[in-house]
Write a structure and sequence with these properties.
Blueprint: E1 3-6, E2 16-20, E3 23-27, E4 31-34, E5 42-49, E6 60-65, E7 98-101, E8 111-114, E9 124-128, E10 132-135, E11 147-154, E12 160-167, E13 170-178, E14 185-190, E15 201-206, E16 215-218
Antiparallel strand pairs: 1-4, 2-3, 2-5, 5-6, 7-10, 8-9, 9-16, 10-15, 11-14, 11-16, 12-13, 12-15
Length: 219
């Protein structure tokens, strides 16, 4: 329900106008916390100097997205209730999950995939084509209190998946799995070694050749 901003002055200005959605205010510091926002929503945020005569500072705008409210525990997701599409690539992504693509190979963004062959149960699984971070909704407690079980399928045994934690834009890997191809593998991850304060678990599909890694997550 909040966005934390910080910026670097463009000159000797000492006041800035911050605009977020329909809200605007003056900041006397080079950082601010905007609160009272709607979870899981997009916002355009801009910062510009409070101009004096001769000051030609330009505004800087950024697109921000607030995360969802924390989930309830125990939490489970099999992706089967998210969509009824019978197209293999559904162009649907789970609500309150998020992704950040970092690879350039391949043509498919992370999305829900239809097909019982590539699902561990039911007909739907989470497809990760390009190299990307895929983050779950925030957890309601410290991660070191939790463990997670999931199923992983790869189309090539030299593809791997990391499980870790998103700390802002930084991914902190905790474990890596290389699995046999064309068969689902079950993994249980403990987060007891994580000492940070963030609460968002994430998957990262990787490949040494920096090509798109066809991998599926389910249940």
């Amino acid at each position: 329900e909040s966005i934390q901003l910080s910026w670097t002055p463009n000159g000797d200005e000492s006041q800035w106008i911050v605009i977020c959605g329909d809200t605007s205010f003056v900041s006397y510091q080079t950082s601010c916390l905007i609160t009272g926002l709607t979870p899981n929503s997009d916002y355009t945020v801009s910062v510009r100097a409070f101009c004096i005569e001769g000051d030609t500072s330009m505004a800087v705008s950024r697109q921000c997205h607030t995360t969802c409210n924390p989930v309830s525990l125990p939490y489970s997701e099999d992706f089967n209730s998210i969509t009824s599409s019978t197209s293999a690539f559904t162009n649907v992504f789970p609500e309150c999950w998020s992704y950040n693509v970092t690879g350039t190979e391949g043509t498919r963004q992370p999305q829900i995939y239809y097909g019982s062959v590539n699902a561990h149960s039911g007909n739907y699984a989470l497809f990760m084509g390009k190299i990307a971070y895929v983050a779950m909704p925030p957890m309601p407690v410290s991660l070191n209190e939790l463990e997670m079980t999931f199923y992983h399928l790869v189309n090539s045994s030299d593809h791997a998946i990391e499980v870790g934690v998103m700390e802002g834009d930084n991914f902190i890997p905790l474990t890596t799995y290389y699995d046999m191809e064309e068969a689902y593998s079950q993994h249980t991850v403990s987060f007891e070694s994580y000492t940070g304060q963030r609460r968002i678990i994430a998957f990262h599909n990787i490949h040494e050749g920096l090509v798109g890694s066809p991998t599926f997550i389910d249940d």
